[in-house]
Amino acid sequence: MSIGARAIQLLRGRTAQNLLALYGVQFANYLLPLVALPYLARVLGPQGWGSLREFRSL
Predict the structure, then answer these.
(1) Do the beta carbons of residue 41 and residue 49 sit within 8 Å?
(2) Domain count of the chain?
(3) Transmembrane ranges (predicted)?
């Protein structure tokens, strides 16, 4: 079996699924704070946001 055929076979299997899952998790780790932080700041207001930040610093 050639190296290219072996590489294609590996990418079709579990390795590719795991790779895509890891990329998906990493993408979510970048995206969720970008969406959640402005929303929470708007909903909580300055006083609520300050209380949240103070609580998280403990």
Answers:
(1) yes
(2) 1
(3) 20-41
Q: How many angstroms from the chain centroid is the CA of residue 56? A: 20
User: Which has more pLDDT, 16 or 43?
Assistant: 43
Structural domain for 21, as ranges: 3-56
As given in the structure block, the two tokens for residue 8 are 């294609």
Among all chains, which residue has been given the structure tokens 């700041």? 41
How does DSSP assign 15-55, residue by residue?
HHHHHHHHHHHHHHHHHHHHHHHHHHHHHHHHHHHHHHHHH
What mean pLDDT, rounded, does the chain reach?
A: 87
Mean pLDDT computed over 5-26: 84
